[in-house]
Amino acid sequence: MKILLINPPNCGRSIPEERYGLDSIRQIFRGEPLALEVLAGNLAGHDVRILDLKAEPDGMQHCLETFRADLVAFTAVTCEANTVLRLAGELKESCGAPVVVGGSHASSDPSFFNDPAVDYVVIGLGKASFAELAAAIEAGNPTGAIPGVAVTRPGGPLSFAPRRYGPPDLAEHAPPRYDLVAANRGSYILSAIGSQLGMVVSAFGCPYSCSFCCISSQTGGRYLTHSIETVLRDITLLGDIPVIRLVDANTFGNIGHARLLAEAIVAAGIRKHFIADVRSDTVVRHPNLMRQWKEAGLRAVVIGFEEIADGDLTFFNKENSVAVNDEAIAILHELGITIVGDFIVSPDYDDARFDALENYVTRRAIELPILTVLTPLPGTPLHGEMQGRITLRDLDYYTLTNAVVPTRLGEKRFYEQYARLTKSFHANAKL
């Protein structure tokens, strides 16, 4: 069976640009569509193609003319959901193949895709369940009882059997199909490092439950790790690409696994730079683990500091404190590990809070601060808490750079402050 996997184009919209001409917040990172490469790896026996519309924005028509797909699947984050529905409708008209949608938005808010343009919604980690669905469709077998896969019922409620995610869902025997995006490999570059970037997954899910995060829906709240051998295999498959982004939500969620992986990288003689996500309390509790990873090639860590006051961290159910964040910053600086610090700017910010954030980041010399606007993504606990305040429901604007609830400052002033800090923080930032 011919299966077409589609990564949607860059399609989020920006209030700061559209209304006020502020473009300094624009940060488009064109990374490889790893989720689709992973899905493709477990589709042995099928003729699979990946269409990356972020790298080939005009590639749809040519692909449809040269590859008559029997099954089409999209991945989508929240700000891409509307575009995926539109593209799915166009595909249904042009080729008539069944359409499947998966990804983070489908997992957090599956009912959004209960639409005539979509036939199936894959909820959560889909490597095994999508392969099961493809096999059932090819064989002409019933598709309504595959756990984690919902058959759409436009006009009626979406129902499905939840999947109990575990090791079989990782399908570790099947490596990602990195070869399917080889033609676009030269465009997968992170400007902050001025180098090609490859992506590898070592774990899925996260053992924590921050209220703004949609990660837990991917694995039903579980934290699953790939075997050490699997991670080494996937790193090796990327050849001479010098920088590897471990795209796990929390690479160090299992300390024992993280130690073994660092040891194995060194023992295998792998000489690459790594970028990984870590919690600040993990750094503080396990500084020797960070030292071990530094020796294995850890170049930078992404840390969700989120806020600079303990009360705000409690609101996010972060299970952390500013004091711990500060201690982690000191440890990482001592080790020479670059910090990519994620901060959430609340629409409730006034000028004083913008100034406080600027002072905090500057005094701690965080190398690459990333600012996002607090966005209650559908399906998250935060969305339920803030439901009554939401005034902007067009998902095109759910890019994490737009306020979807009213701002305390005048809107123009809020975005001017946000754009000013973003521009200032990124002026000399480099990994």
Give me the count of strands.
15
Give the overall form. Answer: globular
Oligomer: single chain
Strand content: 15-25%
Can you give a write-up of this model?
The protein is 34% helix and 16% strand. It has 431 residues and is an alpha/beta fold. It has 2 domains: 165 residues, 3-Layer(aba) Sandwich (Rossmann fold); 239 residues, TIM Barrel. A hairpin with a 4-residue loop joins strand 7 and strand 8. The radius of gyration is 21 Å and the shape is globular. The relative contact order is 0.12.
Keywords:
alpha/beta, Rossmann fold, TIM Barrel, 7-stranded mixed β-sheet, 2 domains, 431 residues
Short description:
The protein is of the alpha/beta class and 431 residues long.
Question: Can you lay out the helices and strands and say which pair or pack?
Answer:
Blueprint: E1 2-7, H1 15-20, H2 34-41, E2 47-52, H3 60-66, E3 71-75, H4 81-94, E4 99-102, H5 104-108, E5 120-122, H6 127-139, E6 149-151, E7 189-190, E8 195-200, E9 203-204, E10 224-225, H7 228-237, E11 243-246, H8 255-267, E12 273-277, H9 280-285, H10 287-296, E13 298-306, H11 310-315, H12 322-335, E14 338-345, H13 351-363, E15 368-373, H14 381-386, H15 411-426
Parallel strand pairs: 1-2, 1-3, 3-4, 4-5, 8-11, 11-12, 12-13, 13-14, 14-15
Antiparallel strand pairs: 5-6, 7-8, 9-10
Helix pairs in contact: 2-6, 8-10
